[in-house]
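Section 3.1 - Work completed
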Amino acid sequence: MKNSIIAKVIIFLFPLFISANIVLGNTALKDTTQKLIAASKIPAKNIAFLIKEANVVYPEILQGHEEESLEYVEKFSKNRREYLVRTYNRSKNYFPKVQKILKRYDVPQEYAVLMALESCFKANAKSSAGAYGYWQFMDDVAKEYGLRVHTVVKTTHSKAHNKNKKPFKSSTHKKAIDDRSNFIKSTNAAAKYLKDRSRNLDNDWLLIAASYNYGIGNVKNAMQKTGKENPSFWDIKKYLPAETKSYVMNFIALNVIFNNYDKFIKNELIFTDEYSRDIELDAVLLQSLSALPGSL
């Protein structure tokens, strides 16, 4: 009777062994056709089954940076969920047009998220440092890239309504002309700026993002401090201010979440493989499993 019960349990569990990676003790069996480790050598509680496989997919330009950023992106997805949902919904009105302009200048579409990071899509956003508009250009850089940033003074004259007054009266009006709050003009300027930085930084996408926040000169100085010939963002990270570090990490996080948004919004986004670690099998059953065909 006991043997028949064990046989039924083995029959039930056997498909699990051939349909998922199994971790027995401290040994991972990535190939499910490999032999099982001898059950007599394994504590009964030290068995785990793969129950959920990681399904997060990085955008192509960010692939290769998973190891350094995955933990940050996962925490960001949990701690800033409301912000991510709100930003994604607002981006629908802007990103398609931004990406079309970026494509014209051969700039990756992932840089559209910089508008969200810079101004939260606000045309009149202004920083304490004086940066202004959708893309937060400073005055000098805006003018360098063809944006008008000046004030027009206009004087108007009109006839007096009363003969006892002067024949004419004049009034002066000041009107600010600032293309940084013009969506099309400022986005074209941003695309040109990013294209220039791609030439300066050999298409290193994370260094380009860092330079948008910190300035190309400062990023170049940080690169020199590493003593390396072609340092990456991860090499210069310790030489950057906290604001720039967060800026680049948020650039990564937004792009990864938006690239997996359907899974994120359904709470189905998995960043690392998940295992069940609470399976207990008695010594008799473990001994029986060791006798399965292909076991040691």
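Second construct:
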Amino acid sequence: MGVRQPDFTGSWYPDTERGCRAVFDDFERESTDLGGTGELVAGIVPHAGWMFSGRIAYDVIRAVARHSTADTVALFGGHLRPSSPITVMDSGDFWTPLGSIPTDEELAAAVCAGETRVTRESPERHAPDNTIELQAPIIRHLMPEAKILVIGAPPREETLRLAADLVAHAQRLGRGLAVIGSTDLTHYGPNYGWAPRGHGAEALRWVREENDPRWIELACKLDPEGMIQEALDHHNACCPGAAAAAARAARELGHASGRLLSYATSADVRPDASFVGYAGIVF
């Protein structure tokens, strides 16, 4: 059994347990308690370097960890095109500085044997992926007993069917399931080759108050098809398939709406002509 090695430690997030826990202590001091919120089964998290969006991701996973009974966390991610294959890491462990997370191989086998065609990945054969890796240490810290199921989710209907099948397989196997979808929002400016509203304060206002909120509204309404189409039309989510899969799974688990936990942009940390939006949403 192999162990999937990291590609972003020491730059996007700390490469030691002590370093990660120090950051988590800071995140805890800044976190908001959800109080009497009922069961949470899923969430949407950003995946930039922790200095930009780690707190938002931490808050979402913290909320799900505190308000669910998950044996397995299904983690959807991937910067994928609609034509990209769906991928599943079906064996091995996922390394983090806090210890490795085992794959739920029984659930992975059930998903891979289903009607939806998938490409199997392994610890030794996979593409580097910040959308997934940046969440793994947070999951290991907040849900230390949970297993993981890593799924690359292209933005198309087939991915949504797989998300629904995942829930059915988990229920048949008696798994307590939590689902996390990883996406950043609008990538704006010269670094990304997209600036329809020029540059400066008006561009930042438009992203914060118009472009990103349209997508967030669809996510909170649990409209996975709308989330995918909105992102493809308006460039306001970079991994809409992953986020939409989480929304579809939440719907299959009996939830009807989501809640925006927090929103920010990279410009809040480092003002620049190029910036990215981040949202934390719980279902």
